[in-house]
Amino acid sequence: MRIGPPGQEVPVAVDIDGNLRDISSIIVDVSCSNLADPVLQLLRMSDLTSLPVLPPNRIGPCVGNVGKIVGIGLNYTDHAREAGLSIPEEPVIFLKAASAICGPNDDIVMPLASTKVDWEVELGIVIGSTARYVSEAVAVDHIAGFCIVNDLSERSFQFERGGTWDKGKSCETFAPLGPMLVTRDEILDANNLELSLKVSGVTYQQANTENMIFNVRQIVSYVSHFMRLDPGDVIATGTPAGVGLGQKPPVFLKEGDIVCASIQGLGEQRQRVTRAY
């Protein structure tokens, strides 16, 4: 995890008792070159009990200095159907601006002129080593770990303002990451994780990553054939049915709403919805 004020986050590891251990004496940050297997192995071998315990603080994005966020669209059959779109024969790829990243419990700020801000709980893949043209057989070797991503979307910007999806995906605070980056060795099967999302106490999304059309290996391999994946890049693997756009009638976020997103083994996010003025 990374805790502290925005731009001043300190890297910590969560010990077996839930204490936040300061690991800044081992790595400068949870980012880029510090996500390679040798560095993660060094952390695994370290005696966390010898490291200082830090008090609770704001939780920052679980990865710092992210180069790019790659989104996979329509990766659950039920979500494609609720959106009224065709089931993809190949992964749908879009990019989400890194400037959209915020902490997992930071406020969601609805942009000026927005009317249709929507939620999307997603499994995030964090890249640990450079991947270019990799096969599915070795794709997992390039993964540092996994986290929760809420791929927030302004649907009127996305579908009604012309251009690509990116316009509705890249608004500030539209990519809460974390709370934790859980290394791949801690997740027995990333393709079998329960995920859910509630808005002000109402459960809208409840699914399992086993229902993804394209699994984790396929996604990393496929994307690496179209762009180089660098350490610290994040891939948001798509969302299941239950987004606001798919409700009848549609339901969108409003000021004061509380959004809670969780994935088995990866923790929970909790955001309050505010509006830009």
Report on the structure:
Helix content is 12%, strand content 29%. With 277 residues, the chain is of the alpha+beta class. It has a single domain, classed as Fumarylacetoacetase-like, C-terminal domain (Fumarylacetoacetate hydrolase, domain 2), CATH 3.90.850. Strands 6-5-17-10-11-14 form a 6-stranded mixed β-sheet, covered by helices on one side. It has a 5-stranded mixed β-sheet with strand order 8-19-18-15-16, with no helix packed on it. Strands 1-2-3-4 form a 4-stranded antiparallel β-sheet, with no helix packed on it. The chain is globular. The mean pLDDT is 96.
Topology overview:
Blueprint: E1 2-3, E2 10-14, E3 20-22, H1 37-45, E4 53-54, E5 69-73, H2 77-82, E6 92-96, E7 101-102, E8 108-110, E9 117-118, E10 121-127, E11 143-150, E12 153-154, H3 155-160, H4 166-169, E13 175-176, E14 182-183, E15 194-199, E16 202-208, H5 216-224, E17 234-236, E18 258-263, E19 267-275
Parallel strand pairs: 5-17, 7-13, 8-19
Antiparallel strand pairs: 1-2, 2-3, 3-4, 5-6, 9-12, 10-11, 10-17, 11-14, 15-16, 15-18, 18-19
Radius of gyration: 18 Å
Strand content: 25-35%
By CATH, the architecture is named Alpha-Beta Complex
Structural class: alpha+beta
> Any idea of the CATH class?
Alpha Beta
Biggest sheet, open or closed, and with what strands and sense?
6 strands, mixed
Helix content range: 10-25%
Number of domains: 1
Low-pLDDT runs: none
> Topology as H/E string?
EEEHEEHEEEEEEEHHEEEEHEEE
> Strands of the biggest beta sheet: in what spatial order?
6-5-17-10-11-14
